Amino acid sequence: MSKFFNTKFANLDAYVPGEQPQDMQYIKLNTNESPYRTSQNVIDAAKTASLKLNLYSDPNMSELTHKIQQVCRIPESKIMCTNGSDEALNFVFMAFCTGSNNKVAFPDVTYGFYKVFAQLYNIDFNEISLKDDFSIDYRDYCGINKNIVIANPNAPTGLSIPLWQIEEIVKSNPNNTVTIDEAYIDFGGESAVPLIEKYSNLIVVRTFSKSRSLAGARLGYVVADEELIQDLNKLRFSTNPYNVNAMTQACGIAALQDNFYYTDNCKKIVAARENTKKALESMGFDVINSDTNFLLIKNDKIDGKLLYLELKKRGVLVRHFNTERIKQYNRVTIGTPEQMKVFINTVNDILRSQK
Ligand SMILES: *Cc1c(COP(=O)(O)O)cnc(C)c1O
Q1: Secondary structure (3-state) at 47
Q2: d(C-alpha 290, C-alpha 272), whole Å
Q3: Four-residue CA torsion sign, 232, 163, 265, 268
Q4: Could you tell me the maximum CA-CA distance found in the chain, to the nearest angstrom?
Q5: Ligand 1: does its nearest atom lie under 6 Å from the Cβ of 207?
Q6: What is the rounded CA–CA span in Å between residue 3 and residue 19?
Q7: Staple 212 to which of 23, 130, 208, 290, CB 3.0 to 4.6 Å?
Q8: What is the mean pLDDT of residues 183-195?
Q9: Which of 328, 302, 327, 307 has the alpha carbon at shortest distance from 318?
Q10: 257 near 43, Cβ under 8 Å?
Q11: Are strands 178-181 and 202-207 parallel, antiparallel or unpaired?
Q12: 111 CB near ligand 1 (under 6 Å)
């Protein structure tokens, strides 16, 4: 740490992204990306947009927002686009969880970035334990008088809670914001977006990274009451008004035009997920039910970290978390059926060599 760095950041544990190794070709099942490339229209749109890179991007993102309205049926005044949904979460923590209302609660096993933002902004955070089966008990969040952030479906568990339970949480905390992170909603679970009309303290965060094959383009958006969107825009214009670059805006518009291609890919991934789950269970794995594009798995015959390392040696990357509650598990992103076949065969080889 340099002598110039604010000492309040000395103990900040930065977010650690999944590996993006450049040394060899892996079957990459570790960061929940789509195994399917973007559609041709998206590639063409990026090329066309690249001809105008001498100009700034549209800071109001009018065309993109309009397209989200058409495809996702959300009023434009209730949408703000961001540089990935991580940036959306950053603005939400900065805007609504600091100051006089600086308390936030989220599950003890969830997306690691929530804790990073809480630490970054010095927010008093409370990690609420999931039940033994990794499910969320919605009653733990009712009337707690704190801001709340829940990924639904949750990551890295894959489990979701029904919409009526989200509504109970939102309803019982009227003086705090409730943020639902819907990074995986296109693979399962019920979206909370329809509740936005009814509750002015509900925030939904979404991304193009997982179901729309645009992780590298960095595009997400927030859906919330107009007044909250105005607050978030104030912070966006006070930090980076051109937060979504011109090529990414064009990619987002084209991806929404090709909606069918992406919903079809989601169906393929869901089918591969269920086949992989069955195959793993027949090999003695515990597999948590998943509404996402990944599975959280463990096998009492092999240590979680060891399985991760053995897979990596053989060219298959999965995600292992070194945290107490899930260190015996691995999170496996669902790839193409061919990739999942290689994954299953490789796991089989490893289990056999362990005997
Ligand atoms: C991947 C992920 C994100 C971040 O996605 P980006 O839009 O790529 O920043 C946010 N929340 C959860 C739960 C995720 O899994």
Answers
A1: helix
A2: 12
A3: positive
A4: 62
A5: yes
A6: 30
A7: 208
A8: 97
A9: 307
A10: no
A11: parallel
A12: yes
The partner residues of 127 in beta bridges, in order of sequence, read 106
What 95-102 contacts at long range (C-beta under 8 Å, 24+ apart), as own/partner pairs, is 95/228, 95/231, 95/232, 95/235, 96/147, 96/177, 96/203, 96/228, 96/231, 97/121, 97/123, 97/147, 97/177, 98/122, 98/123, 101/147, 101/175, 101/176
Q: How many residues does the chain have?
A: 355
- Whole-number Å distance, alpha carbon 234 to ligand 1 midpoint, is 23
Which residue among 20, 89, 209, 218 is best mutated to probe the pocket of ligand 1, counting the most ligand atoms within 8 A of its Cβ? 209
pLDDT at 72 exceeding the cut of 90: no
pLDDT tens per residue across span 2-40: 999 999 999 999 998 888 888 778 999 999 999 999 999
CA distance 114 to 128: 13
Amino acid identity at 237: F
Q: What is the pLDDT of residues 119-171, one digit of tens each?
A: 999 999 999 999 999 999 999 999 999 999 999 999 999 999 999 999 999 99
> For the whole model, what pTM was predicted?
0.97
The stretch 203-218 carries a mean pLDDT of 98
- 279's tokens: 């195959």
- Cα dihedral across residues 164, 166, 167, 171: positive or negative: positive
Task: Please give the full DSSP string across 99-163, using - where no structure is assigned.
Answer: GGG-EEEEESSS-THHHHHHHHTT-EEEEEPPPTTS---GGGGTT--SEEEEESS-TTT-----H
Q: Give which of 163, 225, 170, 159 is closest to 191, Cα–Cα.
A: 163
The one-letter code for the residue type at 56 is: Y
Distance, in Å, from the CA atom of 49 to the CA atom of 301, rounded to the nearest integer, reads 52
Torsion from C-alpha of 91, 257, 259, 159, nearest 10 degrees: 0
Our answer on whether the CB atom of 211 is closer than 6 Å to any ligand 1 atom is no
Task: Please write the tens of the pLDDT for every residue from 318-329.
Answer: 999 999 999 999
Backbone dihedral region for residue 277 (phi beyond 0: left; psi -120 to 50: alpha; all else: beta): alpha
Residue 91 alpha carbon to ligand 1 centre in Å: 14
pLDDT digits (tens, 9 = 90+) for 239-270: 999 999 999 999 999 999 999 999 999 999 99
